[in-house]
Amino acid sequence: VPVRADHRVIHHQAALLAANRYLQDHLTENITLEQLARESGLYPTYFHKLFTAAYGRTPMQKLNDYRIANATAYLASTTHSISEIAVRCGFTSQNYFTVKFKELTGQTPTQFRKAHQKTK
Asked: Per-residue pLDDT tens for 58-112?
């Protein structure tokens, strides 16, 4: 559900919700802004502006949010390597995954895993 709703967001709410669902359903794929805009039936620049207004995050930031949420589940429940988890969550590089993970959680994937294992 969009966080903010001005008249443009409300008018295009179905398209924005569909784009957000598309991100969730295809988070392991290489998704482009143009692809999302096409899925929504909007021009890329306008789509980007509306999505950001609605969710308070750009489409790519939102995609990384979903990818990191997926990664935390893997880290908490599997013994897969960090590089394997990065790939399974749609990241093309372990380094970029680690940077984004720390940016969004405040911990590296290894720190997150160790902290979670201590609570078991």
From this structure: 999 999 999 999 999 999 999 999 999 999 999 999 999 999 999 999 999 999 9
From the list 83, 85, 49, the residue with the least C-alpha distance to 70 is 85
Structure tokens at 11: 């008018």
Quick check: 33 and 60 in contact, CB under 8 A?
yes
Cα distances (Å, whole numbers) of residue 34 to 19, 63, 69, 84, 86 = 11, 14, 24, 28, 24
Provide the token pair at 5: 């709703």
Cβ contact 3:54 at 8 Å: yes
Tokens, residue 4: 């903010």
Using the 8-state DSSP alphabet, how is residue 116 labeled?
H
Tokens of 2: 């969009």
| 69 in Cβ contact with 112 (< 8 Å) | no
Exposure of 40 in the CB half-sphere (CA atoms within 13 A): 31
